[in-house]
Write a structure and sequence with these properties.
It contains 42 helices and 59 strands. It is α/β, with parallel strands linked by helices and about 1500 residues long.
Length: about 1500
């Protein structure tokens, strides 16, 4: 027996010994200690008042100690006392009066008033412990000293229903709510040292992320000897015990017919009816007869013996349930009691359906009243509950039952191993399984309970528990009938209305036994003040059903403290431990009068988290006091095994799972043989792995140890166990700590739940509670941050998330508790809808890979090159096909200058139509032949020369809507020898946002003149414009709408092709305005390159749906047709907003083979027309003519969008091979474009982890952490590309990610800046490699990418080299030494929840900020915070610092459909976003 390990306390134990922590009741904990029970009542009350003041923050720790010492000094004049001198002794006489809601019998009126004023609301005494509250207060005081404010989340006032306290906010933003201040606060909190130390971080291996566990050398280890199984007392054989339980009922029904079996109460707590043993027997008999003979026909009965039947009865009608249960036993069908389903979507309803399915139940017994209350379909049938099999319902009220014929007798065999009944049990994951109990087990269990509890015939028992399952069923329905006990049932509904009802019943009926939970003890204490004459002296056994919960000890103490004066004897309190599988595991037997009370264990929580029993001497703040649950049941054998892995026996000072071998336990999970073996047929093994004995044991799911005298101690349950970083934490302990954070004005005490979610290779703790409607934002945030601190200090574990939801929104179990599994499901699916949330990933996620240390650049580029060659890797470079040489001098001139090309076409082919402009209806509103365009250009030239007073080389801004006027103005400038600068016109409805950009380009380009239309000229000079910019300082504005027919005196001929042709201004995604200089030579080479790539000839027709102001969009809209002679159908993208199908119907109507568009256009069509392909078909839209649809962009190809577009419009004939992308940059407007002759663009899958290290590792499709990338199009003719290390400027191998450099005759010649600082960025355009080919001049694109040689062949028959663009170098995020691309994180974020329509990320002071647009209702806003944090952590190994939830359309997007992340960042930091919610992750 393990009691052999116990020694007297005085023998100077070393701390690790198992039982050194046991303190006996009545003994004093230290030589200088004080027995508080010896103090006078007044002093005790004053101490309690002081305790309360400290717990609610009305007094400092120091002031508290001073006052307390002073108070005690008056009682013990000769002693010098401090706080630590007064400790509670271990027994029931603990000072429970310090609980403000559990005062002694009388209280002074003054203090009564004071308490009422400050009480934090009703406490859930299950988790009440004064020692624990004191510990929490000490932990919080320590944090208060650090004075580190946490940034409070920002919430939009309109977003949530406001509490009264929040309604009146003073005008103006308080300083501390500014984003920058809050980020500073957040950074301060993140500077705190993390736990665990760095040695426990793991390295990010390039192949796999592997944790390298480094065990802490200070971890306590078990040091006792191996435990010996503990035997219960033998189960005695009593001569008059019945052979079966039904036989006992038959006996009492015949011999004691008038004896009361059951009394039921009405809602007010008064007796409603009493069922005698005679009535119980006769009604059960009737039901058994009806079930077997009156359902169905004689030849085809509905029920056979052994069939399973569901019992659906409310707790408020125990009589009907008793009759149904015994009726089933007599009919030899198997009852399966379940809860009454209240709605179709009941929490856990689907799981109950799983139970009914696994047990093969198709018939349900219920009462008439209950049946009427079940939800019905419109035609009166009972609805099909979610997940349930089809059910037949049978009403069992007496009037529907048939009296058995005289010759019919029920068959009552001697108890055997057949199943008697099935009790449901929910697992940690929420699955509901049925535990089958055999007839023999049922009878043996009743016998063991009778012996352990010493039940006598004719006793009275008050049962407050649910009589359908567990102890309410075992004691209150089965054992009571075996012993002819009178049971008085007090249902939950009665307890809610009248909490004292069970105490009154004990008093009135002089009950000998009461069966309660800690909750019932607490409720009775709360209500006892009105009851003066209650007497509990008749009780010989107060069985506490949840006494195995470590937090029950304080409830028992407090209850005893209040009711001892009402006759309650300390020795009658009997906690017990039970489990659905093993039934009753252990129960404390009532002690003899005056005998010493059992011991308490004061355990170190640190030890418990490692599964080891340790004395807690140093830090009582992290101690757990546990009471025993008595001895194991008669006839049982118990051992304790390790809770994970093989069932190996524990050592004596180790916590493990309790296993029971007994005839009185469950036999299996009905219908689930696989799971059964693991639970009901466990063979424990010793340390060498040898089996202990052949007898199988059953797992109880309880964690505990054996104390001295073979007493059983339970410290938690397996299902409440959270394993975080290889340490165990109990959900009950965490709830207790959270509820000890006073004052609880914020949440409801009974409505709090704890669970863990797996995020990034570890369990993370989440606490969810219901917030009181009157709690203010400030109160809630304060409470949440204090809970974090308390749990961190006491349990040494970080919380991942703390969420508060509105009152009455958490899913409930049928008996009113919180349904944890459903809550967890809602949390993970984003359906929890919190009103407050606090995420703390920085505190608790300690296993992110170490930051990468950048290698010092000792290895020169030459060595890198040689290293690559030695490793057999190609240098990453690729070349477009040859441009060819133009021989003819006239052709050269025509090809060198676009102005010459237009004049030549106007002469040789004047009627050839170059441009057709369509409006929203698809009607050609303007066409331009070669001659018309030339003449319009001449008119503009004449006006410029006449009115502009311009010199050759002056800059002229063209401010036009997309159309032919813009093109004519461009060529008019070329004819006049001035430099055109195309600028997007301001948006008339949004001048404040768009006009400053126009002004900036005009100022930066030093424009001498503005060409525009009449409406735009009016806008530029309007009063609205004056509000945004200075309208008096515009350069000369010329409107070109009604120009006179004049020809210019001469057309300008540039002396060399290196002269400037035009300036291309664009705002980059990082918010930089850059203008690049395009020479005539570059323009003509670019047009020639595009002509060759796309096979553009004068007989061809292309459709363009692009913005024509910069980049490749401008080249295709304005330049290409004049050079190549093909016809361009122009579709302004703005027209699509009023007529979505315009572009696609144009392609079909004109039978276009080649079209060019932007991502914005493609997205508009995908989102707006994706569901309307049938409508397009009906309109006759057919896209089978389209050979190539090229998306023009300066970014990584958006693969998911192009694939969606292809799939959606496949139904209207679009070829899956048609869609491809082009790529250009500021330094070179067109680098890649999918031509007509090259191979189809290829797609590869790269490993994202390697990409962060600037390495390219190809993986299979679907591999974890794989990123699909599409080739950006074929490299244009005459262009060379090389991949270069941006730091060393040396060439890279094709397995590396590097900057894309290009060598091309059509690169821009430099940046255009005001102060002539071109030299600063000159190396962007003319730079050399540091090694390899030092003569070639390259242009740096500023984009990262790689080149891969594919198996495909290009036009010349060689293997094709594909260029893959990964992202802009300026936009990459350098976090933890790794390189991240915003788009990858954004893709993950957008997948996190259905309501995220768009997202953007940026960094600020090394914090990752995620902005998400919410398309759903605002109550979903806070659901996004944990989901975004989870997904970024899981997929990118990054901890999000700030999550900002905004309205749709807040993230700024430029004309090319690219996100302006830097603009967004500036708006966020300047508090200009009006976010719905901002969460600062701790």
């Amino acid at each position: 027996m393990s009691c052999g390990a116990f020694l007297p306390l005085c023998s100077g134990f070393r701390p690790y010994r198992p039982y050194a922590w046991l303190v006996f009741s009545g003994e004093v904990m230290a030589d200088r200690g004080v027995d508080v029970s010896a103090l006078s009542k007044e002093v005790r009350e004053e101490l309690a008042e002081l305790d309360l003041e400290l717990s609610e923050g009305d007094i400092t720790q120091k002031g508290f100690e001073k006052k307390r010492a002073k108070l005690l000094a008056s009682c013990f004049p000769n002693t010098d006392m401090t706080l630590s001198d007064v400790q509670l002794s271990g027994g029931h006489s603990g000072d429970a009066t310090s609980s403000p809601e559990a005062p002694g019998p009388s209280t002074s009126s003054a203090s009564k008033h004071h308490r009422a004023h400050r009480s934090g609301g009703a406490r859930d005494e299950r988790y009440r412990s004064d020692i624990h509250t004191e510990a929490v207060q000490a932990a919080l005081a320590k944090h208060r000293e650090e004075k580190m404010p946490l940034p409070m989340p920002t919430k939009r006032r309109s977003a949530f229903v406001q509490s009264p306290g929040d309604a009146c906010t003073p005008p103006g933003v308080p300083v501390n709510s500014r984003v920058s201040t809050k980020i500073q606060q957040l950074l301060n909190t993140l500077k705190r040292p993390k736990r665990p130390p760095l040695s426990e971080f793991f390295l990010d291996d390039s192949e796999e992320i592997i944790e390298i566990p480094q065990p802490d050398p200070n971890t306590p280890k078990p040091e006792g000897r191996q435990i010996i199984p503990v035997k219960g007392e033998p189960l005695g054989v009593v001569s008059n015990w019945p052979p079966a339980l039904q036989a006992a009922l038959a006996r009492w029904g015949a011999t004691q017919a008038k004896s009361p079996a059951l009394t039921a109460l009405d809602i007010t707590g008064k007796p409603l009816y009493t069922l005698t043993y005679g009535k119980l027997w006769s009604r059960s008999l009737k039901l058994a007869y009806t079930l077997l003979n009156k359902l169905g026909t004689k030849t085809e009965p509905v029920l056979q013996p052994g069939d399973r039947v569901a019992l659906v009865y409310p707790n408020s009608d125990p009589g009907m349930f008793w009759v149904a249960f015994y009726g089933c036993l007599l009919a030899e069908v198997i009852p399966v009691p379940i809860e009454v389903p209240l709605s179709k979507q009941d929490a856990g309803s689907q799981q109950i359906g799983f139970l009914l399915g696994s047990c093969g139940v198709s018939l349900a017994l219920t009462s008439e009243v209950c049946l009427k209350g079940l939800p019905k379909t419109p035609n009166g049938e009972i609805i099909q509950f979610k997940g349930w099999p089809r059910m037949k319902w049978v009403v069992t009220d007496t009037k529907y039952l048939t009296k058995p014929s005289k010759d019919w007798q029920p068959h009552i065999p001697t108890a055997n191993t057949d199943t008697a009944y099935i009790e449901y049990k929910a697992s940690k994951e929420g699955t509901v399984m049925g535990v089958a109990v055999s007839k023999l087990s049922m009878l043996t269990h009743c016998q063991a309970l009778t012996q352990a509890c010493n039940y006598c015939e004719g006793e009275t028992l008050v049962n407050v528990l649910d009589c359908k399952k567990h102890m309410g069923l075992w004691h209150g329905v089965l054992t009571s009938v075996m012993n002819r006990i009178h049971t008085i049932t007090v249902p939950y509904s009665v307890m809610k209305a009248c909490p004292m009802s069970w105490v009154q019943r004990v008093h009135i009926h002089k009950a000998r036994v009461a069966l309660v939970k800690c909750r019932d003890l607490h409720w009775a204490m709360m209500a006892h003040k009105d009851q003066r004459d209650t007497n509990l002296s008749s009780i010989r056994m107060l069985i506490v059903a949840d006494g195995a919960n470590p937090w029950s000890v304080s409830s028992c103490d407090a209850f005893l403290n209040v009711f001892q004066s009402h006759g309650l004897k300390p020795e009658v309190i009997c906690p017990c431990a039970t489990s659905p599988e093993a039934l009753t595991v252990a129960i404390r037997r009532p002690g003899a009068r005056g005998a010493p009370l059992p011991a308490r264990a004061i355990l170190s929580m640190g030890g418990l988290s490692h599964g080891v029993i340790r004395v807690n001497t140093e830090d009582k703040n992290s101690a757990l006091t546990v009471q025993d649950v008595g001895h194991i049941m008669p006839g049982a054998l118990m051992c304790i095994v390790k809770p994970d892995g093989s069932p190996q026996l524990c050592k004596t000072d180790e916590i493990g799972e309790i296993l029971i071998s007994s005839r009185a336990g469950g036999t299996m999970y009905y219908g689930l043989p696989g799971v059964t073996k693991n639970t009901f047929e466990v063979i424990p093994v010793n340390q060498s792995g040898a089996p202990l004995r052949v007898v199988p044991f059953t797992r109880t799911g309880l964690l505990g140890f054996v104390g001295p005298g073979s007493l059983v101690f339970v410290v938690g349950k397996i299902e409440g166990l959270l394993m975080v970083s290889r340490r165990r934490h109990s959900t009950d302990d965490l709830v207790a700590t959270a509820l000890a954070v006073e004052p609880v004005k914020t949440v409801y005490r009974g409505r709090i739940t704890v669970f863990s979610v797996t995020v990034f290779y570890d369990e993370r703790i989440v606490i969810v509670a219901e917030q009181r409607p009157d709690a203010s934002e400030e109160d809630s945030f304060q409470w949440m941050s204090r809970v974090l601190q308390a749990i961190d200090s006491i349990h040494q574990v970080g919380l991942y998330c703390l969420a508060l939801v509105p009152a009455n929104t958490l899913p409930k179990t049928p008996l009113g508790g919180i349904h944890t599994c459903e809550t967890k499901q809602n949390f993970l699916e984003g359906n929890l809808h919190p009103c407050n949330i606090l995420m703390c990933p920085h505190t608790c996620v300690t296993n992110v890979p170490k930051p990468r240390q950048k290698q010092p650049v000792d290895v020169g580029p030459a060595s890198m090159l040689v290293g690559n060659l030695v490793a057999g890797k190609r240098i990453a470079q690729a070349t477009g096909r040859d441009l060819g040489v133009v021989e003819d001098q006239i052709l050269i001139r025509k090809h060198q200058f676009l102005s010459d090309a237009l004049q030549s076409r106007a002469q040789t082919n004047p009627e050839h139509i170059l441009y057709v402009l369509l409006n929203a209806k698809g009607v050609a509103v303007c066409t331009a032949t070669c001659a018309q365009l030339h003449k319009r250009a001449e008119k503009i030239t004449a006006t410029l020369i006449e009115r502009g007073g311009l010199n050759a080389g002056d800059n002229v801004v063209l401010l036009y809507p997309p159309g032919v006027d813009l093109i004519a103005a461009f060529y008019g400038c070329l004819y006049a020898g001035v430099i055109p600068v195309t600028v997007r016109p301001p948006h008339p409805q949004n001048l404040t946002a768009t006009l400053p950009t126009v002004r900036m380009i005009i100022d930066v380009s030093k424009a001498a003149c503005i060409l525009t239309t009449q409406p735009l000229m009016r806008i530029l000079r309007s009063r609205e414009a004056a509000a945004s910019v200075n309208v008096k300082t515009w350069p000369t504005i010329i409107d070109t709408d009604d120009l006179p027919r004049k020809r210019p005196p001469h057309i300008y001929k540039p002396p060399t092709a290196e002269m400037l042709a035009y300036l291309d201004f664009s705002v980059s995604t990082t918010g930089m305005l850059t203008g690049v200089k395009m020479s005539h030579a570059a323009v003509s080479t670019l047009c020639r390159s595009i002509k060759l790539q796309c096979e553009l000839y004068s007989s061809r027709q292309i459709a363009i749906c692009l913005d024509p102001y910069c980049g490749l969009g401008f080249v295709l809209w304005c330049l290409s047709s004049v050079y190549s002679g093909h016809q361009s159908i122009l579709i302004p993208p703005l027209e699509l907003e009023s007529s979505l199908p315009l572009w696609l119907s144009t392609l079909s109507q004109y039978k276009i083979r080649d079209t060019f568009c932007s991502y914005s256009v493609m997205e508009l069509c995908t989102k707006g027309l994706g569901t309307q392909t049938e409508m397009l078909k009906a309109r006759g839209v057919n896209l089978s003519c389209v050979r190539s649809c090229v998306v023009i962009a300066e970014e990584r190809p958006r693969l998911s969008l192009t694939q969606s577009f292809s799939k959606l419009f496949k139904d209207v004939g679009l070829s899956s091979r048609a869609v491809s992308t082009a790529f250009g940059s500021r330094v070179n407007l067109a680098i890649c474009m999918q031509g007509t002759a090259g191979p189809d663009p290829s797609t590869v899958y790269v490993d994202m982890k390697s990409l962060r290290h600037d390495r390219v590792r190809l993986v299979e499709k679907g591999a974890p952490q794989s990123l699909p990338l599409m080739e950006s199009g074929t490299i244009l003719p005459g262009l060379r590309v090389i991949i270069v290390n941006p730091e060393t400027r040396g060439p890279l191998g094709d397995s590396h990610l590097g900057e894309i450099w290009v060598n091309s005759p059509h690169s821009a010649s430099g940046y255009y800046t005001i102060y002539g600082e071109e030299s600063l960025q000159a190396d962007h355009f003319n730079t050399r490699l540091s090694f390899g080919d030092p003569n070639t001049l390259w242009a740096k694109t500023g984009y990262l990418g790689f080149i891969k040689r594919t198996e495909l062949l290009d036009a010349s028959g060689d293997r094709h080299d594909a260029l893959f663009v990964v992202g802009s170098l300026d936009e990459t995020l350098e976090l933890r030494g790794l390189r991240y691309h915003p788009i990858d994180i954004e893709t993950s974020v957008s997948r996190a929840h259905r309501s995220i329509s768009e997202s953007a990320v940026f960094t600020w002071t090394n914090l990752l900020v995620v902005v998400a647009e919410l398309s759903g209702s605002e109550q979903e806003a806070l659901d996004l915070v944990p989901l975004i944090t989870n997904v970024v952590l899981e997929e990118h190994h990054l901890i999000v610092g700030v999550v900002v939830i905004v309205d749709p359309g807040v993230i700024p997007i430029n004309s090319r459909g690219e996100k302006q992340r830097m603009h967004l960042r500036d708006s966020f930091l300047a508090d200009q976003l009006d976010p719905i919610y901002v969460a600062y992750n701790m």
